[in-house]
Amino acid sequence: MASSQVAFPITLFLFSLAFSSISASEEATTKTVEKKVDVVVEGMVYCQSCNKFGSWSLTGSTPISGAKVSVICKNQKNQVSYYKSFATNANGYFYAQLDGFKMKNNLSDHPLQSCHVKLVSSPLQSCNLLTNVNYGLDGSPLRYEKKNFADNNYEAVIYAAGPLAFRPAYCTPSSHN
């Protein structure tokens, strides 16, 4: 009888070991780490050349450092659901991470449908008039160019706005001979 009494505790021990191993694996699968996904909008801001005034051409334009743009998102009721302004870097480029942006209705609240970029201000007194290049006055629509950044628990989905431009307040008239 001694051998059967020993076999029962060993079986019980092996069963409890197997059960604890199953419990641990269940805990591991239920404790999944949430992946953080950010929405980012990028683009460029330029000073449009005087000789391209009145067009959407950016030939001969120069990037503006410190220009401000705003990202505005509206819900399906045309109410502002997100607003923030961003400044360009030394090369006229802005990378706008939309902290706090939320989508309630997947289609109508999607950034491609609900968000636009508008010109706000230029630090250059010599080039601070708004233009409507790529709809900078009304709001440049976003486009998806298959850009993203992904890491273990993080992903940034990057949307682009068309290049925007200010123009000089005064351009020397060209002489026609």
TrEMBL record:
The protein's name in its UniProt record: Non-classical arabinogalactan protein 30
Protein's GO biological process: root hair elongation; unidimensional cell growth
Provenance organism: Heracleum sosnowskyi
Any one GO CC term of the record: cell periphery
Signal peptide: 1-24
Record flagged with keyword Transit peptide: no
Key words of the record: Signal
